Amino acid sequence: MTVQRGKKLSISIQEHMAIDVCPGPIRPIRQISAYFPRLSPTSPTPLSPNPTSPPPALSPGSGASGMGGPQLLSPLLAEGRPGGGGSLSLTSSIDTSVEIHSSDSDDCTALGTLEFELRYDQSSSELHCTVKRAKGLKPMDFNGLADPYVKLHLLPGACKANKLKTKTIRNSLNPVWNETLTYVGITEEDMHRKTLRLTVCDEDKLTHNELIGESRVPLKRVKPDQTKRFHTCLEHPPPLPSPTAMGEALRGISCYLREWENEQLHSLEERGRLLLSLQFLPPLSSEDEDVEAGSEGRRNGGLCVGVKRCAHLAAMDVNGFSDPYVKIYLKPDIQKKSKHKTAVMKKTLNPEFNEEFFYEISLSELANKTLEVTVWDYDLGRSNDFIGGVCLGCQSQGDALRHWTDCLKNKGRRVERWHILTNELPRTMSHD
C-alpha cells in the first residue's frame, strides 16, 4: 500500500490479502482462506476474494464447486487420482468383506498400502493370514527401491516365539507375496483380546533392517470360519508410553499410575502354546474290568493327562531352536510321586509328543488339586532352561479354568484345549 501526500489514496491488494477500506484507519483483516473450507490440493476451484459470498459446496467426486448439493468434502479420493490422503475407491465401501483404513495425514500415501486376508478355523484353533501384496511403498535404498518383507506379531505379548515372517521381495515398491502364515493354538479368548500386528520392513544385509510401516487389526473383527479381506494404509508405529514421565505429569492419579506401571513391569511374556487333553475316568465296575484287560492301575479311576504337542516355542539355543520336553505335577504333592516327564525332542520349536500319563485319584480329591505343566529346553552338561508353563485348577483363570471344570463335569470324556505358555514359574514349583 502506498499513500502520496496531496494525492488520492491508492491501495494495492495482493492475491492473498483483503483490505478493509471503510472510513477510519486502514487495517488488514483475515486471509481469504479463513473464509472458506479447506479444499483438496487437486481441486481447480478458484477462490473468490469476496468474503461475503457463501462457501462453495463440494461433492466427493467432483472438483468444481456448487455441484451436487452441500456435502462435506471427503478426505478420500477415488482410486487412481493423485494427491489423496487414503486409498479407498468410491465403490469399495459397498463391499463389506473389505476393510480399508485411511488416515488424514500424508503417511498413508508416503508409506504405502498393504492387502491381506485373515481366517480363523475354530475347529483346528488355527489363524491363517494370507499376505497378498503391498503398493506404493516408501523407497528405502539408494536405488530408489526397497527389499520388503512382512512379519507378524500377536499383541499383547509380542516376542520371537509368536513372530512369523514372509519371504523377501528384492528391488520392488509394489511387492506381491501371496503367502499364507499360520498361527497354531489360537483360542477363542485370543480372538477376543489379541491384536495382529503386520509390519512391513526393508531388508538390509550390511546394516540393520529398517521399518517401513505397520498395520494393526483386532482379531475380534474376524468371525470364525469366515475369510475377511483387508486393504490398509501403513502407519508409523505408535510411540511407547513412558510411565515415569506420565507419573510426573499425572500426580493426581499416582496410585492408579503406580498400579499400571507395576503391571507393565511384571507383564508375562508368551513362550509358545501347548495342546493338552484331560479325561477323568470313573472307577471301573466288575463288568468293565473283565472287558478291559491290563487296566489294573485305572480300576479305581483317576485323571488321564495327554501331552499332545507344542507350537511356536521360544528358541533357547544359539542355533535358533530348542530341545523341548514336558514335565507335569499334580500338587500338593506330599509324597513327591506325581512327577511325569515326556521324551526330549531335538531341534524343534513345534514338537509332537502324544504321550499320556495317569494319576489314580478320586474326583473329590482332584477338585482340591492343581495340575502344573511346564516345558523345558534340555541342555547337556548344564541346567535345563525353563521355556514356559501353565497351571490348571479351581484357582486358575480363563482357558485354564474352563478346561479344568469341563474335565470335572464331563466324566469319561476327553477334553482338549490349547494353552498359552508364560515365562513365569509356578510358585509351588522348584528346579530339579
Automatic annotation (TrEMBL):
SMART domains (alphabetical)? C2
Alphabetical GO CC annotations of the entry are:
extrinsic component of synaptic vesicle membrane
**InterPro entries, per this entry?**
C2_dom (IPR000008), C2_domain_sf (IPR035892), Rabphilin/DOC2/Noc2 (IPR043566), Rabphilin_Doc2_C2A (IPR047022)
Residue spans making up a coiled coil are none
- GO terms for molecular function, please? metal ion binding
Gene3D superfamilies to which the protein is assigned, alphabetical:
C2 domain
Q: Looking at the keywords, is Nucleotide-binding present?
A: no
- Note down the stretches annotated as region Disordered: 37-90
Residue ranges constituting the C2 domain according to the UniProt record: 110-234, 283-419
This protein is called Double C2-like domains, alpha
One GO biological-process annotation of the entry reads: brain development
Keywords tagged on the record: Calcium, Metal-binding, Repeat
Residue ranges with Pro residues bias: 43-58
List the source organism. Acanthochromis polyacanthus (spiny chromis)
- Indicate yes or no for the key word Transmembrane helix: no
